[in-house]
Amino acid sequence: MASSNRSIYSALAANLLIAITKFAAGAFSNSAAMISEGIHSLVDTVNQILLLFGLRRSRKPADALRPFGYGRELYFYSFIVSILIFGLGGGISIYQGIIHIITPEPLGNPTWNYAVLALSVVFEGTSLIIAAKEFNKTRDGETWWNAIVKSKDPSTFLVLFEDGAAVLGLFIVMICMFIGHNYNIPQLDGLASMLVGLLLVGVSMILARESRSLLMGEGISDESKKRIMEICESDPAVLKVMKIISTYQSPEDVMLMLIIAFKDDLDTQEINEGIERVRSEIRNEFTLIHFVIIQPEVITHKFRY
């Protein structure tokens, strides 16, 4: 979580400063694309604040109202962030672009725009590098896309996507602005705004899909299930693992439920001792699993196979 905070704080500082300068440059040069970029940076700033708030809420200890803790608060706020990118970032940018394509305004002096865009590339690029380095530490040999799909910490890949979209959007605006000013095509300013908006809509759809999946409840990997089954069935009291049910309550908290068939010649005390051994072994190996609920079942000889 500390690494997540580092990338979020760096993105927050960069976006706040950049948003102010983009709005100022857009006002001086009558550039819809720059205004859209300012909106983009402002939305990203709000997003980082929401992520930090979600991270703080997710760390609240369990209480009578939430006996399993508040971990899913992070997933909720991550989903809200993806909706904000779609609505405020993408929607407003597309609207601004359409308006400026239909009724293009005379292009002002682009000098300030170029200066702001160049600085923005430096700041956003630095933030992207930090986010990429932090996320790379969690990949564990997976491809980037597979690591994103399997990640249970949305604060890492949300910042990565936001910064990536920001850098790509800056280059789109720079290219369209350069061509528009050199060939006197003011409509390209609106086109740049539309392209930035479409980029944000695409990113928001990916993030919404991943955040929704986490909010609905994702389980542990097949490899972890296999290892848990091995741990359980190696215990002398266990006959067979009937079912494994798991869900991530937060990136650092997994709830596990096991339905285990114990040998039919065991008494209640021996079954309870077996349950405690299995629970202890699982917790020792899987530090993220905090809740282990075991439902015992007894299979008689005639039903064995």
From TrEMBL:
<feature type="domain" description="Cation efflux protein cytoplasmic">
    <location>
        <begin position="221"/>
        <end position="297"/>
    </location>
</feature>
<keyword id="KW-0472">Membrane</keyword>
<keyword id="KW-1133">Transmembrane helix</keyword>
<keyword id="KW-0812">Transmembrane</keyword>
<feature type="transmembrane region" description="Helical">
    <location>
        <begin position="76"/>
        <end position="102"/>
    </location>
</feature>
<feature type="domain" description="Cation efflux protein transmembrane">
    <location>
        <begin position="10"/>
        <end position="216"/>
    </location>
</feature>
<protein>
    <submittedName>
        <fullName>Cation diffusion facilitator family transporter</fullName>
    </submittedName>
</protein>
<feature type="transmembrane region" description="Helical">
    <location>
        <begin position="192"/>
        <end position="208"/>
    </location>
</feature>
<dbReference type="InterPro" id="IPR040177">
    <property type="entry name" value="SLC30A9"/>
</dbReference>
<dbReference type="Pfam" id="PF16916">
    <property type="entry name" value="ZT_dimer"/>
</dbReference>
<dbReference type="GO" id="GO:0016020">
    <property type="term" value="C:membrane"/>
</dbReference>
<dbReference type="InterPro" id="IPR002524">
    <property type="entry name" value="Cation_efflux"/>
</dbReference>
<keyword id="KW-0813">Transport</keyword>
<dbReference type="GO" id="GO:0006829">
    <property type="term" value="P:zinc ion transport"/>
</dbReference>
<feature type="transmembrane region" description="Helical">
    <location>
        <begin position="114"/>
        <end position="135"/>
    </location>
</feature>
<dbReference type="InterPro" id="IPR058533">
    <property type="entry name" value="Cation_efflux_TM"/>
</dbReference>
<dbReference type="InterPro" id="IPR036837">
    <property type="entry name" value="Cation_efflux_CTD_sf"/>
</dbReference>
<feature type="transmembrane region" description="Helical">
    <location>
        <begin position="39"/>
        <end position="55"/>
    </location>
</feature>
<dbReference type="InterPro" id="IPR027469">
    <property type="entry name" value="Cation_efflux_TMD_sf"/>
</dbReference>
<dbReference type="GO" id="GO:0008324">
    <property type="term" value="F:monoatomic cation transmembrane transporter activity"/>
</dbReference>
<dbReference type="Pfam" id="PF01545">
    <property type="entry name" value="Cation_efflux"/>
</dbReference>
<feature type="transmembrane region" description="Helical">
    <location>
        <begin position="156"/>
        <end position="180"/>
    </location>
</feature>
<dbReference type="InterPro" id="IPR027470">
    <property type="entry name" value="Cation_efflux_CTD"/>
</dbReference>
